[in-house]
Amino acid sequence: MGFVLLGLATLNVMGMSGAILQMFSHGIVASLLFAVVGRMVYDRTHATVGRTGRAGQGDSLCVRYICNCGAASMGMPGFSGFVAEYRSSWVPSRCIRCWHSPPR
Predict the structure, then answer these.
(1) Measured between alpha carbons, how far is residue 16 from residues 25, 59, 90 in Å?
(2) In terms of pTM, does the model score above 0.90?
C-alpha cells in the first residue's frame, strides 16, 4: 500500500504506472497463493487413509509455486512486484536527492 501511495503522490506517468502495476501484481500473486494453499488443504482433508502416503509426497509442485509466489510477493528482482516498486519509487528518490543537495 505504501508503494501505491508513493507512486500516486508523484503525479507523473512513471509513478502512476508503477502504482497500477503494483495493485495488479498484488491481486494476481495473492490469489495464486490462496489457490495453492487451498489445493493443499483440500488434498489433506479429502484423502482416504490408504492414499495419504508420506506427508508432502506429491507437494513438490505446490512448494515450487509457493516459493515463486512468495518471491513475487516480496518484490524480488525478476518478478512484477520488483518492477512496480522500482517504477513507484524511482521518481521520489530523485526528488529527495534534489531537496537534500547543498545550495550553491
Answers:
(1) 14, 39, 12
(2) no
